[in-house]
Amino acid sequence: MNLQQKSSIPERLFDGFNYFFMALLSLVCLYPFYYVLIYSISDPRLAAKGIYLWPEHFTLSSYTQILKLGTVPHAFLVSTEKTVIFTALCVYFSTMFAYLLTKREMLYRKLIYRFIVASMYLNAGLIPWYITMRTYGLKDNFLLYIIPGVINAFYIILIKTYIEQIPSSLEESAQMDGAGFLTIYNRIILPLSKPIVATIAVYAAVGCWNNWMDNYFLVNDPKLQTIQLILYNYLNQATSLAQSAAQEAGSTMRVRVSPETIKMTITVISVLPIVLVYPFLQRNFIKGIMLGAVKG
Amino acid sequence: MITDQKRISRQRYKYFLISLPFVVFVLAFSYIPLFGWVYSFFNYSPALRLSQMQFVGWDKFAQIYAERTEVYRVLKNTLAMSFLTILTAPLPMIIAMFLNEIRQSRFRKWIQTTTTLPHFISWIVVFSLAFSIFSSGGLYNSLLQLFHLDVPMIGLLGNNAATWFFQLGLGIWKSLGWGMIIYIAAIAGIDSELYEAARIDGAGKFGLMRHITLPGLAPTFFVLLLLSVSNLLNNGFDQYFVFYNSMVADKIEVLDFYVYKMAWLVNDYSYATLLGMLKSVLSLILLFSVNYLSKKTRGESLI
């Protein structure tokens, strides 16, 4: 209250400008998403003439067309499946390894930790990576999306820092009661690490959902295509897709789809999961990056 | 006592043994691929075993020199993008300071939530959004028409002269909000007594920003700056791959893209491997250098 009395004219001008500038910034970040959304639910002909604020002649025809097409829903399922499995495994095993690395009595602990941290800074390059994955039999294999990233050095550093703050008394008393390693990990460490685990789960899930390079370079099997790559392919050849959609729609005369609308629709579909989970998980980010700042 | 010691020594091995599979895993996915670097010295062919491949020694290094005009152009693009990004590095810090001056916490949270969103989408989606706005039939052109302004012949996506700045802008759009978070966290960590003391000394809003907040953020800024220097050669691949088109090709080909091009489009696998290896090794040298610099100047290491 004191502050407001003291603010001078330049300060009040600054405040006004500040609010305006921040609102503008927010708009610049959000509007492209909104634009794509209203385009995808507008009549393609009216949309092509230019829409700015709200959908023109609301229609979901492009969505129903894409659902009928089969490839997009299937890719969406593949992406969902890989993201769910990857996130669960990555969080479970990275946390377990991080927990092991907090054990001071462990043999060669420091050496192992350095070995893990150093792996973050190594990058073999495209061709060696490709050859290695192929040698491991991961080419055209669903496991390619899951296995290589399950143990993540960066996550391990974050989780380890967190677990080190947990008082060891709980663990010790469980040990006295004869609890084994897995019991202690599952029943005590994992539940107590919930905040950092939630943060890591978001990183892992978003990263997995958005990843497409493994798909692009190593998976040709159409059954294993992810939504990101489907979107990329359609962006580069939307015309042909719109044609096939139009052919399938042939019987219903009224339905019109344009290449642009198809692109927008697939974009909306591929962003939707992120936008949906985003607000619920956003509060964890600061916590996570704070921990990262300590060591990162 | 004896049983306790026994228990601890048993645990020494127990934890080590449980860790072993994880260590093997990291070895397999982070270290084993490094052996692929030997292909830089052979004529790699996918059909052959290493023992059957022709050893070419330093020939591939000579190839870099032979293609020096091309390599020079790629390096120019790489460094241009890196330096432009470093030049804009203060932006997230400054905007985080501005955001901190906003008193309404709900508005502040809204700004933070919305500006962070672009960080969480893939470059493919960014391309799609950019295409819907900047392509010839996109929003930007139809807005120009709406106000009866001249529509440029070439859209931004195909504008060769503007490529670097357009890509820089996209990079800022995607990373600004995320970059702000670390500064917002750092501001929260500044001792509030400092503000109190400065206020008593008569400092206004601007005085506090300049003399308390800004110096409080300087260490964070410095660390991030050093890290970005160590990443001079790593622009990333996604962005330049998805925004690539023939009209902007000569300006958008950065090192990561060039490695991909030589491998996937030209099929010169050994040359691509060599380039990737040199990039990694140089990046490591840069990292150790800035780390050394950091130790000397701040007494703290980065890694």
From TrEMBL, chain A:
UniProt-listed CDD domains: TM_PBP2 (cd06261)
Record-annotated ABC transmembrane type-1 domain positions: 76-281
Transmembrane stretches, start-end: 20-41, 83-102, 111-131, 143-163, 184-206, 262-281
Principal localisation: membrane
Any one GO CC term of the record: plasma membrane
Keyword Transcription regulation set for record: no
Location(s), subcellular: Cell membrane
Membrane disposition: Multi-pass membrane protein
Cited SUPFAM superfamilies: MetI-like
UniProt xrefs under InterPro entries: MetI-like, MetI-like_sf
Keyword list, A-Z: Cell membrane, Membrane, Transmembrane, Transmembrane helix, Transport
One protein family per Pfam: BPD_transp_1
GO biological process, one term: transmembrane transport
Family according to the record: Belongs to the binding-protein-dependent transport system permease family.
Full protein name: Carbohydrate ABC transporter permease
Organism placement in taxonomy: Bacteria, Bacillati, Bacillota, Bacilli, Bacillales
